[in-house]
Amino acid sequence: MTKALIGGNSVEQLKSIIARVEKLEEEKAGIAADIRDIFAEAKGNGFDVKAIRSIIKIRKMDASEREEAETVLDTYLHALGMVPEFEAFDEAKEQAVENESADQLAKPDGHYLQAVTLVVLDRNASASYLQRLLKIRYNHAAELIERMEREGIVGPANHLGKREVLRKPEGEAA
């Protein structure tokens, strides 16, 4: 008995491939139904399903993708006037900037001192954070963070892209 061949492959092999794909399609449909049931349960318990879907989408991204998406969204929202103008400095931050020497403020990069103050006081060494508060380009904010790393103000990025703020605010014990 000879096996039928299609393009040099057996018909049995072709049937096996098709059967495996069909089985996986059935499993996929079952999983999709299970997911729909979970979302229906969430909606029935008062949760916002759109928000849950957004969270799941965000959790699938790595830290740099997430930061880039947030930056782009913030930039667009700001450009469209959909984000209220918020003050970059509260009283403590303003006081810290005023206490810095005039020669440091006269340095070529006027944003650096402000960026250091924000990072040290808020304990947040993120380029997108600086971009939003200082209203500067993302690349410029990233350069400021890199300079802070070179000067020992923040540590290197960890496996999640987060940086430890090494410098303590003025008046805080080391």
Number of contiguous helices: 8
| Strand residues, percent | under 5%
- Average pLDDT works out at 81
Helix content: 55-70%
The tally of beta strands, per DSSP, is 2
Question: What does this protein structure show overall?
Answer:
With 174 residues, this protein is mostly helical. The chain has 2 domains: 10-60; 67-150, no CATH class. It is 63% helix and 2% strand. The protein is built from 8 helices and 2 strands. It has helices at residues 11-44, 49-59, 63-79, 91-99, 102-105, 110-122, 127-134, 138-150; strands at residues 5-6, 9-10. It has a two-stranded antiparallel sheet. Strand 1 (5-6) and strand 2 (9-10) form a beta hairpin. Helix 6 (110-122) packs across helix 8 and helix 7 packs across helix 8 (138-150). The longest helix has 34 residues, at 11-44.
